[in-house]
Design brief:
Helices cover 30% and strands 20% of the residues. It has helices at 15-26, 48-58, 85-94, 128-137, 157-164, 203-210, 251-267, 294-310, 326-337, and strands at 4-7, 31-34, 39-44, 67-69, 99-104, 119-123, 141-142, 170-173, 184-187, 194-197, 214-215, 243-248, 272-276, 286-289, 315-319, 340-343. The protein starts with a strand and ends with a strand.
């Protein structure tokens, strides 16, 4: 299969290009497109045969639910059987934006789209290209991240092409995404909301609107036998080819440990990359300083993992940040990507 890339203006998408992509969606094909978080791999969410192609293209387990994207709040009524008052509060505050809500599904949604579950995950993206594509297609679009399963999520069209060349028909190139990590996912099917995946909307922001929130044990690094109603919970994700080592501790201790590990690894002829929040000359083959700016860290995280892979890094050392605000989402991705953690007491 030939994979075509259509470059478009992210602020004023060319209608002809959007129409071409929308026709492909309506005909049961796959289209990769940008959202404000990462690039998504889209298909008609209500067409079971089209949705099946997503799982095949990504090499994704069929019990891993997909998020459905809509362009109007009113469209939620066709996908969910019960829109609770709490859901309405959340929608009014955070849509469009990087927040996915989980509700009981309606009969119109095929079980393949929800990973066999009786719940459905839905969000309304803020990205102009995504909105226009959904509107022109005339159907809700199921869209997980447009990468091969387990790889770092794509934040640019070239990342999609790396993983999906020959697997899908079309990529809409709308430049780099802004948020850089996936949407927050919150389960609103019970009286007390349950955070399933931290992301672009922080827990602190959600609590201001809905009060108490439970955190799923998986987010805290614990095992859980409960039903996984969100992507990013059950399987290993976000991993580059290089081994990721996550370093946790005070800034001074992380700086010292990082420098030591770089020296040790290079003595063993390993190519080393460093993603640092503490500025120093570590002597690695490739280095990226992100500092204390969590928004910048999130925006460049997946891009840097892929960049270091392209430069043939054997090991990537990443310094940890506090799990507050956007830091919870960043650390969630890093903990899933890491093959090893080093905690310095």
């Amino acid at each position: 299969m030939r994979t075509e890339t259509l470059k478009t203006n992210p602020k004023k998408p060319e209608p002809a290009k959007i129409r071409k992509a929308a026709r492909l969606i309506r005909s049961g094909g796959l289209v990769a497109f940008p959202t404000e978080t990462v690039y998504g791999l889209g298909a008609d969410a209500l067409n079971a045969d089209a949705v099946k192609k997503i799982f095949v293209a990504k090499g994704r387990p069929s019990d891993n639910p997909l998020i459905i994207h809509i362009c109007n709040k009113e469209d939620l009524g066709t996908l969910a059987s019960n829109i609770t008052p709490m859901a309405k509060k959340v929608i009014d505050r955070f849509w469009p934006g990087p927040l996915t809500i989980v509700l009981k599904k309606s009969r119109s949604v095929p079980k393949i789209t929800t990973g066999g579950l009786d719940t459905v995950a839905v969000r309304m993206p803020k990205n102009k290209i995504a909105q226009e594509l959904i509107r022109d297609a005339g159907v809700p679009i199921a869209a997980p991240s447009a990468n091969y399963s387990g790889r770092p999520s794509p934040t640019a069209a070239e990342h999609v092409l790396e993983d999906m060349r020959g697997r899908i028909g079309l990529i809409i190139d709308g430049g780099r995404t802004k948020v850089g990590i996936e949407s927050t996912v919150i389960d609103l099917t019970s009286d007390i909301p349950l955070l399933l995946r931290p992301g672009g909307v922080t827990v602190e922001e959600l609590k201001k609107v809905i009060g108490r929130i439970r955190i799923h044990p998986v987010i805290r690094g614990k095992r859980s036998e409960s039903v996984h109603r969100s992507p990013g919970m059950k399987y290993r994700h976000y991993s580059p080819d290089a081994q990721v080592i996550l370093i946790e501790g005070t800034k001074a201790k992380m700086r010292k440990k990082t420098a030591y590990l770089v020296r040790d690894l290079r003595k063993r002829q390993k190519r080393v990359g460093v993603i640092a929040i503490v500025k120093a000359e570590y002597g690695a083959d490739m280095e990226r300083f992100v500092g204390a700016d969590k928004e910048r860290f999130a925006a460049v995280l997946f891009r840097t993992l892929r960049e270091f892979d392209s430069k043939k890094a054997d090991v990537i050392l990443v310094q940890a940040i506090p799990k507050k605000g956007l830091g919870l989402g960043i650390m969630n991705r890093l903990e899933k990507a890491a093959a090893k953690k080093v905690r310095i007491r």
